[in-house]
């Protein structure tokens, strides 16, 4: 009897020990399934994307909002001046009596229309809004010229073309040397020879008017 009881106790002890080991292994297995550290690492990886996105937005490119005062002043004056040259050139083609003056007007329309388009392309590229009409002073010059006919028109028009182009050349040279925005400076510099040619032709036409 004693041996039977001892045998039963040993078997019971062995069963209890195996059950304890099984519980410990299950618990360990469950704990290894927890992936919180990996998840948090993934979150940290995602969060590092934000700084690179935000820094890519800053290109350092000049825009219409950070142009220098010189650039804005020049662009506005060049836009208004170009509009006036085209409008007065059209007047010359109808109101002038001298062939040289008519030819001068046609050249002004062609060359200044091209320059105006280039200036508009620049403004679009940098996001700057150019004037689309004449200021009060240029509007008065246009209205006064429009009222003239024949020789009176020829004299008035050629006088204006000489004086205006002298002023334009000075302004374009100033922008080419003192401007801040590279593409606008380049536009001003390459347009100077055209303006100098206009001045020369204007002086010739003025001399041809009797």
Describe this structure in words.
This protein is mainly alpha-helical and 210 residues long. It has two domains: 32 residues; 140 residues, Ferritin (Up-down Bundle), CATH 1.20.1260. It has eight helices and no strands. Helix 5 runs antiparallel to helix 8 and helix 7 runs antiparallel to helix 8. The longest helix is centred in the N-terminal third of the chain and has 31 residues. The termini are far apart. Keywords: Signal. This is Membrane protein.
In short:
With 210 residues, the protein is mainly alpha-helical. The protein contains eight helices and no strands.
Note the main attributes of this structure.
210 residues, mainly alpha, Ferritin, 2 domains, DUF4142, Membrane protein, Ferritin-like, signal
Structural class: mainly alpha
Fourth-tier CATH superfamily name of the largest domain: Ferritin, core subunit, four-helix bundle
Question: Which percent bin holds the helix content?
Answer: over 70%
The total strand number stands at 0
Largest sheet: none
Rg calc? 42 Å
Average pLDDT number: 81
The CATH class designation of the largest domain is Mainly Alpha
Give, in order, the helices and strands.
HHHHHHHH
SS field, number of helical segments:
8
